[in-house]
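Board work, copied verbatim: Myeloid-associated differentiation marker-like protein 2
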Amino acid sequence: MEKPKFSLSALKSTRGALHMLQIVMCAVTFAVSYVWGHPLHTYWIYCMLVWGLCPIISLVITIVEMFLIHKLILGFCMEWDDFTTGMAMMASLCTFSCTAMFANFYICRKCIWGWMVTILSVVCCALYCAETFRDKCDATRSATYVAALPGFIKILEAFVACIILISLIGYVGKPALLWCIVAYAIPLPLTLLTIIVNILTKLKNCLPFSIDRFTMIFLVISILLYISAAILWPTYSFKGNPRPKDCPGNSCVWSIQFVVTIMTYINLGLYVADLVLTCLGICGFKRSQ
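↓ predict structure ↓
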């Protein structure tokens, strides 16, 4: 096993240049958004978290590769190429969602701040998409879980669940909608736990049970929870509550509740697809990578 040593090749490569640009642009976007305003809306807080965490992940990956620590990580616990490509895919999704949120909620004819942050966010998203495209086109990089279909579906499930949770509104005094919040919240940590266990291959191999069978049980529970939410959320959100005539997309409670409804059905579909893939894996069929 090679000992870790310092190498500037990680910075001089196209990949290293992309990481540096990602770090700089996310930091600039974070700073501009923070200095120009503090809406303290859940969408704004989510965007600030994304612009804060994504460059930290890029920085950690760069440092690990610069000191060749990933060679030790590869031997001990995970597929490094798969992990880094998966992180780039996740960052692409998150920065894209931030761009869409700012374009919808904070842009107006006189809102220079909103335009600036949105344009900067577009650049951040483009940089992460460029890294994802580059990694996926590189035949020498492995895609064993996170960067493959089974793991990417899990990332999508967690991503959509986060969008749902930050969009929840109009549930006060409605027990049925409070149940929906529970139904949205329970699968998310279990999804993240499943992703982590599958990334850490050594840990996965030490488990006294099959992670696929555990995942299948968890997916069945998640599907049942989402089915209940898919019925209750639109029923109790829109019953006797038609769309108002004056309902701008950036400030209308009805529109945000409609977004939650659509995301609920999308995540239900993702969990069903995930269950099918998991069952095929247990039955011995080869899963797509």
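The chain has a mean pLDDT of 84.
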